[in-house]
Each structure stands twice: as structure tokens, then as C-alpha cells.
Amino acid sequence: MKIKNWIGIGIIISLIFATVYGFSQEEITQLHDSTFKTHIRPPAQFAHDQHNDTAQIADCSTCHHVYEHGKKGEGESSEGQPCSQCHFNQDDNALELINIYHKQCRGCHLEKKAGPVLCGGCHQRK
Ligand code: HEC
Ligand code: HEC
Ligand code: HEC
Ligand code: HEC
Q1: Predicted confidence (pLDDT) per residue in 68-118, tens digit
Q2: Contacts of 69 (CB under 8 A, 6+ apart)
Q3: Contacts of range 43-50, beta carbons closer than 8 Å, 24 or more positions apart
Q4: CATH topology of domain 28-122
Q5: Is the pTM of this model over 0.85?
Q6: What's the 92 CA to ligand 2 centre distance in angstroms?
Q7: Which segments of the chain does DSSP mark as H helices, in order?
Q8: Is 100 near ligand 1, meaning CB less than 6 Å away?
């Protein structure tokens, strides 16, 4: 193999490491989706990993779902894709995006009778 190819492979490997390492570095502690042009409320508290440990949600696709023909895809997940990628409609003033966040977060808290359901329980000024 020519030396040029080795350099190319080296660059690719370091890019992969940078990506993986970069992701594990930024831990989510709250949500303030930048898709919303303005924010009326303070960020929603959501310590991603800690929340999912405490709430015992092992399946990533519980939140990062994939739908096929109107049905939730089994064993598939859309982790890494922002919710807004599929749930933001320019024409509805982000109403869908607000609704799906509330439906998923608050919906499960209501169902499980655990976790905050009042506005200030999630949107905390800190
Ligand atoms: C309780 C719901 C929930 C569960 C369970 C969950 N996530 Fe997430 N995750 C979110 C939300 C909400 C975001 C932010 C999405 C956005 O910004 O649009 C997010 C963001 C992410 C991101 C993007 C990180 C970043 O820095 O932008 C990754 C990667 C991710 N999750 C991976 C996972 C993996 C892997 C699992 C399973 C081990 C998992 N998630 C389980 C709700 C969840
Ligand atoms: C790859 C595209 C995709 C991603 C990413 C995605 N969704 Fe969805 N979601 C769908 C589809 C498709 C449906 C089913 C059709 C519909 O109701 O819009 C759906 C349905 C939903 C529903 C049920 C809607 C209802 O009316 O009952 C909620 C709640 C929801 N998504 C929340 C989220 C949240 C929160 C995130 C981010 C953590 C997310 N979705 C990420 C595609 C996606
Ligand atoms: C599938 C169920 C489920 C979903 C989806 C979910 N939660 Fe929770 N959440 C829980 C449970 C269960 C608890 C209580 C955990 C405990 O303390 O025992 C909780 C607790 C919390 C708490 C209290 C502090 C903490 O971290 O334990 C906050 C804040 C919270 N959730 C925010 C959110 C937000 C924001 C979302 C949406 C992005 C979300 N949750 C989605 C189940 C869920
Ligand atoms: C279970 C957690 C939870 C509860 C309870 C909740 N929200 Fe949210 N809300 C979220 C998440 C997550 C987002 C999306 C992340 C963000 O804030 O950008 C959001 C987004 C919003 C937004 C759009 C962004 C902004 O700041 O303008 C508004 C408005 C909002 N919520 C209002 C409310 C109101 C009013 C209540 C009470 C009736 C409420 N929320 C209760 C989790 C919650």
C-alpha cells in the first residue's frame, strides 16, 4: 500500500475517534431545542443518561422511535436524529414539536404516575 493511503486511513480513524469521543463529552442535562425561534419557558430539565437509569428505560427506541407504515418499527431506533428532524413543521409555528415533546415526556409521567407533570416541574429556572 502506498504511504498516501496510510495517511488517508489515519485521518479517517482519528475522525471516527473524534466523533465518538466528542459525543460522550457533551452530556445532556437539559433540553432547550434551538428549533424554537424563541423560548417562552426556561429549559426543560432532562439529565439524559441519569434520567433513563432512574426511570429504568433500557430501550432507546422508547423515545428515539422509527415508524414504518404507521407502525412503530421493532428493534429500530432513531438515536442521533433530533426530534425536530421529523416533527417540525415550518407552517404550524412549531406547534407539532411542542406537542410531541409534551406527549412523550408528560404522557409517560402520567402513565407511570412518576416524574413531573406540572409546567414548573420540567421548565425550571436554574
Ligand atoms: C426518555 C426519552 C429518551 C430515551 C429513553 C433515550 N433518549 Fe436519547 N435523547 C432524548 C431526547 C429528548 C434528546 C434530544 C433530542 C433533540 O435534541 O431533538 C436525546 C438526544 C440523544 C442523542 C443526541 C446527543 C446530542 O448530544 O445531541 C443521542 C446520541 C441519544 N439521545 C442517544 C440515546 C441512546 C443511545 C439511548 C438508549 C441507551 C437513548 N438516547 C435513550 C430522549 C431519550
Ligand atoms: C425518524 C423520524 C422520527 C424521529 C427522529 C422522531 N419521531 Fe416521533 N414520530 C415519527 C412518526 C413517523 C410518528 C407517527 C406519525 C405521527 O403521529 O406523526 C411519530 C409519532 C410520535 C408521537 C406520537 C404522536 C401522536 O399523535 O400520538 C410522539 C409523542 C413522538 N413521535 C415524539 C417524538 C420525540 C419526543 C422524538 C425525539 C426524542 C421523536 N418523536 C423522534 C417519526 C419520528
Ligand atoms: C417512558 C417513560 C418516560 C419518558 C418518555 C420520560 N420520562 Fe421523565 N421520568 C420517568 C419516570 C418513571 C420518572 C421518575 C423516576 C424516579 O425518580 O423514580 C421520571 C422523572 C423525571 C424527572 C425528575 C428528575 C429525574 O431526572 O429523575 C424529570 C425532570 C423528567 N422525568 C423529565 C422528562 C423529560 C423532559 C422527558 C422528555 C424528554 C421525559 N422525562 C420523558 C419516565 C419517563
Ligand atoms: C414532562 C416535562 C414537561 C412538562 C410537564 C411541560 N413541558 Fe413544556 N416542554 C418540555 C420539553 C422537553 C420541551 C422541548 C424543549 C425546550 O424547552 O426547548 C418543552 C417545550 C415547551 C415550549 C416551547 C419552547 C418554549 O420555551 O417556548 C413551551 C411554550 C412549553 N413547553 C410550555 C409548557 C407549559 C405551559 C407547560 C405546562 C402546562 C409545560 N410546558 C409542561 C417538557 C415539559
Answers
A1: 999 999 889 999 999 999 999 999 999 999 999 999 999 999 999 999 999
A2: none
A3: 43/123, 43/124, 43/126, 44/101, 44/105, 44/122, 44/123, 45/122, 45/123, 45/124, 45/126, 46/105, 46/122
A4: Cytochrome C3 (3.90.10)
A5: yes
A6: 16
A7: 3-25, 48-54, 84-87, 95-112, 119-122
A8: no
Query: CA-CA-CA-CA torsion for 77, 78, 80, 84, nearest 10 degrees?
Result: -150
Residue 75: per-residue pLDDT: 87
In the chain, the percentage of residues whose pLDDT exceeds 70 is 80
For residue 63, the CA-to-ligand 1 centroid distance in Å is 7
Average pLDDT, the chain: 88
Ligand 4, atom 20, lies closest to the CA of 98
Nearest protein Cα to ligand 4, atom 1: 106
Cell of 62: 422508547
Measure 102 CA to ligand 3 centroid, in angstroms.
Answer: 12
Render pLDDT for 45-65 as a digit per residue (tens, 0 to 9). 999 999 999 999 999 999 999
Which triple of cell numbers denotes residue 11?
485521518
